Amino acid sequence: MTDRLAELTRLFPDLKLSTDPGDMEHHGRDWTRRWPPSPLAIAWPASIDEVQGIVRWANQQGVAVVPSGGRTGLSGGAVAANGELVLSLDRMNRVLDFDPIDRTLTVQAGMALEAVQNAAREHGLIYPVDFAARGSCQIGGNVATNAGGIRVIRYGNTRQWIAGLKVVTGTGELLDLNRGLIKNASGYDLRHLVIGSEGTLGIVVEATLALTAPPPPSQVMLLAIPAMDALMKVFAEARHRLRLEAFEFFTDRALHHVLAHGAQRPFDDAYPFYVVSEFDAADAEAEAAGLAFFEFCLAEGWVVDGAIASSDAQAAALWRLREGITESLAPHKPYKNDVSVRISAVPAFMAEMQALLTREYPDFDVVWFGHIGDGNLHINVLKPTDIDNASFVEQCEHVTSMLVDTLARHGGSISAEHGIGLVKKPWLGSVRSEAEIALMRGIKAVWDPNGIMNPGKLL
Question: Which residues form the FAD-binding PCMH-type domain (predicted)?
Answer without folding.
Answer: 35-214
